[in-house]
């Protein structure tokens, strides 16, 4: 994109493209001659998606953005307070991932609509708005309760056992009484301080330490057997490697393996609902520039032109293709 021939190639490809995705800071694509307004004049059906930190307009549009910044700005960090009392970012690039999901959703629906309206459109998807969209229920709680809401579903949460950690979740009042029965603490079920979710939230500092002490007495599998028998929602906390080797994951083929040159076996979870088992036949991720020649040939460039682009630095090709 810093080479005049590279920009000319991108403009030519955009004239025939269904979708163009760019992740420059707002205004950069336009300065390069690759903005929506100019490209859509030659290709009115173009679906043009811009990805940024804060969006294409507004007072923060030119600010640098990242996954961590989006988590902080959206409110996600504020609701992820650890036992140390400190708000923490989620330990994965959740903002990056969910932005991709929303981007796919927007592109897919716009392509579908194009068949009716006949034109594409410019789609603005950004990390901060995407992460905020995940927290719509928290925004509602904040407004309805007039400030930071009390904890939900107490004593739901993570508990350490003799040999690991598990998650215990409650979604209705009868489950609390069944939980107390499963851990043989009927006194907690009848204590008026813990009579309902609201009172348990107010008395969480008294209730939860007692549950923590009980759960430390047995191993996770023993607790899960008892909790599941009482129809309590609970599960062992797995790390990604344990998830991959879990018998349910293996039985349902929830992960797909791809043998990638230079890397070896690469495993990833399947895309829910959409790709299904078709992901078994996906090609490994290509090297940067691996398909440059094929793309340019399909776009109508001759072999000598492509060689010239490669020599001038306007086009990058994978080393295996150039013979270097």
Molecular structure report:
This protein is of the alpha/beta class. 46% of the residues lie in helices and 13% in strands. It is built from 17 helices and eight strands. Helix 4 packs across helix 6 (127-134) and helix 5 (94-117) packs across helix 6. The longest helix has 24 residues, at 94-117. The chain starts with a helix and ends with a helix.
Span between termini: 23 Å
Helix-residue proportion: 40-55%
- List SSEs in N-to-C order: HEHHEHHEHHEEHHHHHEHHEEHHH
In DSSP terms (H or I, runs of 4 or more residues), the helix count works out at: 17
How much strand content do the residues show? 5-15%
Fold topology:
Blueprint: H1 4-16, E1 19-22, H2 28-31, H3 36-42, E2 47-52, H4 67-74, H5 94-117, E3 121-126, H6 127-134, H7 136-144, E4 157-160, E5 165-169, H8 173-182, H9 186-190, H10 197-202, H11 204-215, H12 220-229, E6 233-236, H13 240-245, H14 247-251, E7 255-260, E8 264-269, H15 292-298, H16 303-312, H17 319-322
Parallel strand pairs: 1-2, 2-3
Antiparallel strand pairs: 4-5, 5-6, 7-8
Helix pairs in contact: 4-6, 5-6
């Amino acid at each position: 994109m810093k080479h005049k021939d590279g920009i000319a190639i991108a403009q030519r490809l955009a004239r025939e493209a269904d979708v163009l995705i760019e992740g420059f800071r707002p205004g950069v694509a336009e300065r390069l001659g690759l903005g929506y307004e100019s490209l859509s004049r030659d290709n009115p059906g173009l679906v043009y998606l811009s990805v940024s930190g804060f969006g294409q307009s507004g007072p923060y549009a030119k600010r640098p953005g990242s996954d961590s910044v989006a988590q902080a700005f959206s409110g996600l960090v504020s609701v992820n307070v650890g036992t140390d009392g400190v708000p923490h970012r989620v330990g994965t690039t959740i903002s990056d991932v969910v932005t991709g999901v929303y981007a796919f959703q927007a592109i897919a629906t716009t392509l579908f609509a194009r068949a009716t309206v006949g034109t594409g459109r410019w789609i603005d998807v950004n990390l901060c708005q995407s992460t905020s969209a995940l927290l719509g229920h928290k925004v509602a709680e904040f407004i309805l309760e007039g400030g930071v809401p009390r904890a939900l579903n107490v004593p739901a949460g993570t508990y350490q056992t003799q040999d690991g950690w598990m998650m215990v979740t409650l979604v209705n009042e009868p489950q609390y009484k069944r939980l107390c029965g499963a851990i043989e603490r009927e006194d907690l079920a009848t204590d008026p301080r813990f009579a309902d979710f609201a009172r348990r939230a107010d008395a969480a500092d008294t209730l939860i330490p007692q549950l923590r002490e009980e759960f430390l007495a047995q191993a996770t599998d023993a607790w899960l057997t008892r909790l599941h028998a009482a129809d309590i929602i609970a599960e062992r906390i797995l790390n990604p490697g344990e998830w991959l080797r879990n018998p349910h994951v293996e039985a349902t083929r929830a992960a797909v393996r791809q043998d990638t040159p230079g890397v070896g076996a690469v495993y990833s979870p399947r895309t829910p609902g959409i790709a299904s088992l078709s992901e078994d036949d996906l090609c490994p991720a290509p090297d940067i520039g691996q398909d440059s020649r094929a793309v340019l040939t399909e776009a109508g460039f001759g072999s000598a032109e492509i060689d010239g682009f490669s020599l001038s630095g306007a086009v990058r090709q994978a080393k295996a293709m150039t013979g270097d």
